[in-house]
């Protein structure tokens, strides 16, 4: 008993079983991949397109010809639906702008008792010119798609440069249009006119919301183009034009925002100057 205790044998270390990770593609947001198309950088288009294909049974992208074919069919159907959404929403947008022009702009131009010329110009800006652009775009888009083609990028590449100055001017005037509306709506005659027009067009949006339509449409273009590009194979004949159109669209948005920021800065400087002049006079 007094002898030294026998050393206990070392316990065998448990082997840690490492779960084999499957080569599952990392989830990537569309905005992360497509959102930088407007700058000079580029991404691996083949790798991105492969990630859009359905996964095989082992969790990795399907490599068989059958899996690739099924994936292409699925992507093609999604792309077709998005293009149809672009066409249908463009028609809806044109209808809404026409409602603004016919039911609000045209009557107010002849009602000097309700609104002066300078006021309705501030309220509506160049919305009629924007409507003309959208009608022209729709007149080219619909016949192309009705013929069975799924290519429309070249239409946008040609027409966006004409939209750019129109959108910049409208976006710059947007805050003034809201201010003008809120100022005029305080008058009972103008408020009654707007109320009667709203009743006549129960299905349409109110006047103040309608002023946001051109800006809202540009946001929709951005979203739809990104998704359509993500579902377009790089070998597709429309791929290059779609990417170019998206870059032009983003450049237009940035230019419009710069103009607005510049005007706001100038307004702030003027307010500061006016306050300083008031102090010095005092």
Which descriptors apply to this entry?
282 residues; mainly alpha; 10 helices; 0% strand; elongated
Describe this structure in words.
It contains ten helices and no strands. The protein is mostly helical and 282 residues long.
Mean pLDDT: 78
Strand percentage lies at under 5%
For the record, give the distance between the C-alpha atoms at the N and C termini, rounded to a whole number.
Answer: 107 Å
Number of strands: 0
Order of helices and strands: HHHHHHHHHH
Report the total helices.
Answer: 10
Structural class: mainly alpha
Shape: elongated
Report the sheet with the most strands, covering strand number, pairing sense and barrel closure. Answer: none
Give the low-confidence spans: 1-5, 13-62
Question: Helical percent range?
Answer: 55-70%
Radius of gyration: 29 Å
Describe the structure concisely:
This protein is mostly helical and 282 residues long. Helices cover 69% and strands 0% of the residues.
Summarize the helices and strands and which ones pair or pack:
Elements: H1 30-34, H2 45-51, H3 65-109, H4 117-124, H5 127-146, H6 153-184, H7 188-200, H8 207-210, H9 213-230, H10 239-281
Helix pairs in contact: 3-5, 3-9, 4-6, 5-6, 6-10, 9-10
